[in-house]
Amino acid sequence: MSRLVFLGPPGVGKGTQAAGLAQDLGIPHISTGAILRDALERETPTGLEAKKFMDAGELVPDSVVLQLVRDRLAEEDARSGWLLDGYPRNLQQGEALQSLLQEIGDSLDHVIYFECAESELVRRLSGRRTCKTCGSTFHIEFAPVPEQGQCDAGGECEIYQRSDDVEEAILNRLEVYHRETGPLVDHYRSKDQLVVLDGAAPIDEVGVALRSALN
Ligand code: AMP
Description:
alpha/beta, Rossmann fold, 3-stranded antiparallel beta sheet, 8 helices, 49% helix
C-alpha cells in the first residue's frame, strides 16, 4: 500500500511523474490543481469560487481544498493507497492532512520533493501547453505539441495554454511557492520524512530515481 505526497515548485514535472507512478502502482493520482480545473470547467460553485485565485496564481483557500481532498480520499479506489500531487501546499494544509489521516485511520508513507532551479521552471512553464481532454502536457520547444490527433483519453486533443502559465501568473506562483510551500518542505525535512529528487534531470531519469527511492 502506498500513500504518497509529491511536493515541488510549479513546472518541476511532478504531475508527469505522479501520473506514471500512480498508474504503475494502481493507485489514484489525486491532483488538487486538476480537480479544481475540472470544477472550473464545469462551472461548479467550487470552481467559480476558485477561479480568481487560480488565474492570479494564488492559493485557493485551505478550507475549499481540504474538502476536495477529504471527499476524494473517501472514494473506493483510494482505499488501496493514493498519490497526492499539489496537496498539501502550506503548513496549515500539512496539519489538516495529518488530522484527516488520523481521523480516517490512514498514514503517510513517503513525501517526495522535486527540486529545480527557478530559471528552468520559468522556461518550462511559459512554453507548456496542455490537452484539455486528457491533461497531457507538451512544450513548444521540448515536447512537440500535436496539432490534432488522438489524445490519451481516446478523444481529439484540444490543446490550450493554462491561464496561469503566462508570465505574470508564473512569477506569482513561484513567489507563492517559496512563501507558502517552502516552510512545509522544511518541516518534512526536519522530521526526516523527505525524499529529495533532482527535478531538473530528464523525465526518464527522474522516473528511475523515483522508483529506486521508493524501493
Ligand atoms: P497546480 O496544477 O498544482 O499547479 O495548481 C494550479 C492552481 O490550483 C494553483 O496555482 C492554486 O491556485 C490551485 N491549487 C492547487 N492545489 C492547491 C492547494 N493544495 N491549495 C491551494 N490552492 C491549490
